[in-house]
Design brief:
The protein has 252 residues and is mainly alpha-helical. Helix content is 70%, strand content 0%.
């Protein structure tokens, strides 16, 4: 893996500690500011249940973690003359932008246990005029976000098998990449339509589209659109058998 289990646990605990301290410092500013009576709590949106908020956190944390794995930990293709890629941070940031805009009204769009801890700490230390219970929501959010990370690591083994075995075939992985990339894109569109902002929906969708192309492009080409696959087939850039296979993955 990109880091050992011990390193991963150490990094996670350090990040949780940092989030807690940041939340405490923010609470100090909140208590001294003009908005001290406003409550900033870790909770679902006013018209949403925890089930909806939890699934939203799980899904978009999964997307974020998957893109991190796909763009920041993979070996560069043989045709690339440098071992550095200069888009991984842009791709990861785009996931946060898309997730925050798509589900901010549903769950708050934390997508990170450290952020959830920080928001919970802020609300606990400086609860405003209407204190809300935080412990249940905090553990619920963290649990769903960690499940999202587990799902991302599991899927990554299917879409990027050569990271684990250089001799692994990519036929199935290409179809899985097209399916996952298209599903994530369409689900983001749906979330934006149902809970997003008309002003920022296009930005969220474009950011997610870009991130999924970066994540799946080295494996499948990142078509994510039957019309694009069809156009590539017409120009000979994509063999027709692959076009029909991609259609199966995209439409399903």
């Amino acid at each position: 893996g990109a880091c050992t289990l011990t390193e991963g646990i150490g990094h996670s605990l350090t990040q949780i500690l940092a989030g807690s301290i940041a939340g405490f410092v923010a609470a100090v500013f909140h208590m001294a500011g003009p908005n001290r009576d406003i409550t900033y709590a870790l909770k679902p949106g006013d018209e949403y249940t925890f089930s909806a908020a939890g699934f939203a956190e799980l899904f978009f944390t999964f997307v974020l973690a998957y893109v991190v794995l796909a763009v920041a930990t993979t070996r560069p293709p043989a045709s690339q003359v440098t071992t550095q890629n200069f888009y991984f941070a842009f791709s990861i940031g785009s996931c946060v932008t898309a997730g925050g805009l798509a589900i901010g009204a549903v769950s708050g769009g934390e997508l990170n246990p450290a952020v959830s801890v920080g928001i919970s700490m802020l609300s606990t230390v400086s609860p405003g005029s209407t204190p809300l219970p935080q412990i249940a929501y905090l553990f619920g959010y963290i649990f769903m976000e960690l499940i999202g990370g587990i799902c991302a690591a599991t899927l990554f083994r299917f879409t990027h098998p050569k990271e684990f075995n250089p001799n692994s075939p990519l036929d199935v992985s290409r179809l899985v990449c097209e399916f996952v990339g298209t599903f994530v894109l369409v689900f983001t569109v749906g979330c934006c339509a149902l809970a997003g902002s008309a002003t920022w929906n296009a930005t969220a969708i474009a950011c997610m589209f870009m991130a999924m192309i970066y994540a799946t492009g080295p494996i499948s080409g990142g078509n994510l659109n039957p019309a694009v696959s069809f156009a590539l087939g017409l120009t000979g850039a994509l063999p027709w058998p692959d076009v029909f296979k991609y259609w199966l993955g995209l439409i399903s």
